[in-house]
Specification:
The chain is mostly helical. The chain has 18 helices and nine strands. Strand 2 and strand 3 form a beta hairpin. Pfam families: Rubis-subs-bind (PF09273).
Length: about 450
């Protein structure tokens, strides 16, 4: 039932930096010496890698051995995959670097307060890689001091550990970096807006469920701490991490966990996946600079919801913009309260918003239809036993040739089944195209 305990993980099973240091005085001594220069996340990554280095002697060996060997968070994307967040790779080609150099078309028009949203995605990906590399360089002296094996000192390994921490940690009050929670980190994600319990229930069961929810709420009110569950669980007074059912589940149904409210770009950045239908997605479009300064709202509050509705801030800004200049002050209170001024004003708002959407779409290098066909092609390749045939039968031969050239792969030497490293890159390429398509 909704609200029922699904999993309880005792604190002793949680992998945290303080627990690792408590079990290993040498690690504790070295980490404490470097503590002022390292963030809590860097310390947890070092502790994680220290346990990995112990092999079977680590108390978390069984847990560590089942962790993924690779991730698809934005920071793992190479240049080719990052560029795919924005452009159709066949359209912007310059034969200078590794045979081809990938270019993306940035918005150079004046008078707009937003770059394209796709530009933001490329910037986020590049910034993430740069930040992680900097953190690795800062932590390397500590890892050398701990006599890490050469493989554990590599940036590639640090990136894997960072992705593990980014995509799998759960929140705990005593450590900003969170904890790695065995079993608890296996739950797949469900957006908070999709959670609730409107499944078909008979009257008697609905009454019991309602009574239980009231009791749970009363128990939470009794708690003296600010630990009212905003997601689907947390670390509780019982000295354990507890996870609860977000809705009523039937036999055989997958139990999902709400990590929080994220846009698709944020999901890709932190967790390495995205949702085809994300109720928390935000779409930004080009807006006149005058419109952005209409009110006091921050720029990131001016967006369009997945259902096409403008955000409250964007709608108010547009209503104010569509009001004659000499009447804006007298109508501002009504506008800021969210009220519609008139049918004429509302029609002008929607007309303006619609034209801006069309303008944005027309300046993007690809269409949703083209991206959809490319996604289908990339999925087929990942499951193909004869990729040459799939490429020949598709209209994406040029893009795939670019892909092979980027990875320095000689087509003549490639077997019928693509190498693992190319399959993983295809997976990330598909994610990039899926994001830009959405």
């Amino acid at each position: 039932r909704r609200g029922e305990l699904v999993l309880r993980v005792p604190r002793a099973a949680l992998l945290t930096s303080d627990r690792v240091m408590a079990d290993d005085p040498r690690i504790a001594s070295c980490v404490d010496a470097h503590r002022p220069r390292l963030s809590s996340i860097q310390r947890l990554i070092v502790c994680l890698l220290a346990e990995v280095g112990k092999g079977k002697s680590s108390g978390w060996y069984l847990y560590l051995s089942q962790l993924p060997t690779y991730y698809t968070i934005l920071a793992t994307f190479n240049d080719f995959e990052i560029e795919a967040l924005q452009v159709w790779l066949g359209r912007f080609v310059n034969r200078t670097v590794f045979g081809y150099r990938l270019l993306h078309a940035r918005n150079t028009l004046n008078g707009f307060c937003f770059d394209y949203q796709v530009d933001d995605a490329i910037w986020v990906a590049q910034k993430a890689v740069s930040a992680i590399r900097s953190e690795w360089e800062e932590a390397t002296p500590l890892m050398r001091e701990l006599d890490f094996k050469p493989k554990l000192l590599m940036f590639k390994t640090w990136l894997w550990a960072f992705a593990t921490v980014s995509s799998r940690t759960l929140h705990v009050a005593w450590d900003d970096a969170g904890c790695l929670c065995p079993i608890g980190d296996l739950f797949n994600y469900a957006a908070p807006d999709n959670d609730t319990s409107s499944e078909e229930q008979d009257t008697e069961e609905a009454m019991k469920c309602q009574e239980r929810n009231v009791n749970v709420m009363l128990e939470e009110i009794k708690l003296d701490s600010p630990s009212v569950r905003l997601t689907d669980g947390g670390y509780e007074d019982s000295k354990a991490y507890c996870l609860y059912a977000r809705k009523r589940y039937r036999k055989g149904e997958q139990v999902l966990l709400g990590y929080g409210t994220y846009t698709n770009l944020e999901l890709l950045e932190h967790y390495g996946f995205l949702l085809d239908e994300n109720p928390n997605e935000k779409t930004y479009i080009q807006l006149d600079s005058e419109l952005c300064t209409m009110g006091t709202w921050p720029k990131d509050s001016l967006y369009i919801h997945p259902n096409g509705h403008p955000s409250f801030a964007l709608l108010c800004s547009l209503r104010l913009w569509a009001t004659p200049t000499n009447r804006r002050k007298s109508f501002s209170h009504q506008i800021y309260s969210g009220s519609m001024l008139s049918v004429e004003n509302e029609l002008e708002v929607l007309k303006r918003l619609g034209s801006k959407c069309v303008e944005t779409l027309q300046q993007l290098p690809t269409t949703a239809e083209l991206d959809g066909r490319l996604i289908h092609f990339l999925r087929n390749l990942q499951n193909s036993t004869s990729w040459r045939v799939d490429v020949e039968q598709s209209s994406f031969g040029q893009e795939f040739a670019l892909f092979l050239r980027f990875h320095s792969v000689d087509v003549d030497c490639t077997q019928d089944q693509l190498p693992v490293r190319l399959l993983r890159s295809l997976e990330r390429w598909e994610l990039a195209v899926r994001w830009r398509c959405s």
